[in-house]
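User: Fold this; tokens only.

Assistant: Input:
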Amino acid sequence: MQPQRYQDIDWNLLWHQAQAEKSWQSKGASDWDDRAVSFAQRTELSPYSHAFLHLLNPNPDWSVLDVGSGPGTLALPLASRVKTVTCIDFSANMLKILANRAAEEQLANIKTYPISWTDDWKKYGVAPHDLVIASRSLAVPDLAAALCRLTDFALHKVAVTDRVGYGPFDPDAFAAVGRPLHPGPDYIYTVNILYRMGYLATVDFIRLEETSRYPSFDQAASRYLWMFRDLSASETKRLHRYIHSISVLHADGTVSLHCRHVPTWAFISWRPDRSP
């Protein structure tokens, strides 16, 4: 048998195959609408956005297109650092939270579009931007097509984050509940698809803290509840028991979680002109 050459590997096909084996389902617009408030609260407490913006280091004269912006986790702090920010998200409730927060902070340089990855962005008036980002939003029907679209709308730079291994999922929580966890393809597929497309990507890593602190146990529990669909009463009880086992209640009423698995994200960036 003739050995297969690296350049002949179809990484997008492998990505599709790995996607089919994952144990979780991508959430639709209605799912994110229902979780918009809790998601906004949870991400507001995370150091992730600070780490992302530190690696991004945008030019202050640039326009930024934020694909899958959510409630403005990155768009809001970006708005005070760049010329304009355009946000795309298919969850109307996420964009409503973003708009309310922007008004509270008196940020007038943010535009929002309630559209999805598969919509015709140009038809809705979205133009190419200096910088295009997709932060933890690569749950797409076709990864290669999504990376091409991001690149087509970028004038100077593209930056995305993708899971490393389990990513935000805690395998110990799944074991405690009694459900299997097959997280699906991670960042290495993204890097190799870009390489096959001719882009030399730069890869950095965002490793979140081993200990996370929350205002209450309920908010700490929300860190885990989003990982599961349709938990039964017994499963919910087992999950809460696990969360209690890794939590510490402090005198001020706050709760810190100490889990073995530390969520890690790959920060992947490239130039749209295929130069290093």
